[in-house]
Amino acid sequence: MTALVRARDVRRDYPLEREAVHALRGVSLEIEKGEYLAIVGPSGCGKSSLLNLLGAIDAPTSGTVEIEGRNVGSLGDREVTEFRLRHIGFVFQRFYLLPILSACENVELPMAEAGVPAAERRQRSEELLRYVDLGDRARHRPSQLSGGEQQRVAIARALANRPSLLLADEPTGELDARTGQEIISLFGRLNADGTTVVVVTHDESLARAARRVVHMRDGQIVQDEVPGG
Q1: How far apart are CA 57 and CA 72, in angstroms?
Q2: How far is CA 195 from each of CA 151, 170, 187, rounded to the nearest angstrom?
Q3: In this structure, are strands 3-15 and 62-67 parallel, antiparallel, or unpaired?
Q4: Are 206 and 38 spatial neighbours (Cβ–Cβ below 8 Å)?
Q5: pLDDT digits (tens, 9 = 90+) for 27-70
Q6: How many CA atoms lie within 13 A of 104 on its CB side?
Q7: How does pLDDT run across 106-156, given as a tens digit for each residue?
Q8: How far is 150 from 134, CA to CA, in rounded Å?
Q9: How far apart are CA 222 and CA 213, in angstroms?
Q10: In the chain, which end has fewer C-beta atoms inside a 10 angstrom radius, N or C?
Q11: Residue 1 near residue 34, CB atoms below 8 Å
């Protein structure tokens, strides 16, 4: 396997009035193409800060993050926005669907931003909704969908531009146990089909489903394990 992501001695400090908060304290991590990785740990341990760096949403205070061989921390605002759009898909605890748009139209949004022609956008959005078992809900608006259905639309949207890396921050956090299990199964299918998946989670079931688990505490990785390995 080839490393898709390399974080080297990454530190992230957030200034406060009198002293900085050290969210990440020298984290190094490699993620191979095709991996399914869960990042776990107590609240405030740096999980989401690390995910933001892996997704080029934030830049490290020091150290480097490379995705597909590019140092994303060195990219300008326009370059990094374009890079995220074309290479990284995001799924969040809250679904962030536009309420006035249908499921199909929500999935089309990233493709419209990337300049994909309208006919191609519509075809791919319908294909993705079928992939997440929502082919019969394509014309429904978010208010007409359950929480689990909305999260599946959000996952389809994250896949719209064929990203090399899918990042999810507490994707089952607002779902009941049964619906959460459906989303866990979907992530497993995505990974089996070749998508590199990284999730931040408190959900033990989701962490157990991953093929590799990184444990964090106080801004550092304290354990990196392959369950059952």
Answers
A1: 10
A2: 17, 18, 9
A3: antiparallel
A4: yes
A5: 999 999 999 999 999 988 999 999 999 999 999 999 999 999 99
A6: 16
A7: 999 999 999 999 999 999 999 999 999 999 999 999 999 999 999 999 999
A8: 10
A9: 11
A10: C
A11: yes
Contact 34, 194 (CB under 8 A): yes
Looking at residue 129, its amino acid is L
Beta carbons within 8 Å of 174's beta carbon, 6+ residues apart: 93, 94, 147
Residues, the chain, total? 229
Provide mean pLDDT across the span 209-224.
94
- Contact in structure between 188 and 211 (CB atoms under 8 Å): no
Confidence of residue 206 (pLDDT cuts 50, 70, 90): very high
What is the phi/psi pair of residue 169, to 5°?
-110, 105
Question: Are 63 and 9 spatial neighbours (Cβ–Cβ below 8 Å)?
Answer: yes
- H, E, C per residue of the chain: CCEEEEEEEEEEEEECCCCEEEEEEEEEEEEECCCEEEEECCCCCCHHHHHHHHCCCCCCCEEEEEECCEEHHHCCHHHHHHHHHHHEEEECCCCCCCCCCCHHHHHHHHHHHCCCCHHHHHHHHHHHHHHCCCHHHCCCCHHHCCHHHHHHHHHHHHCCCCCCEEEEECCCCCCCHHHHHHHHHHHHHHHHCCCEEEEECCCHHHHHHCCEEEEEECCEEEEEECCCC
pTM over 0.90: yes
CA distance 71 to 67: 7
Residues 6+ apart with CB under 8 A from 163: 86, 87, 88, 89
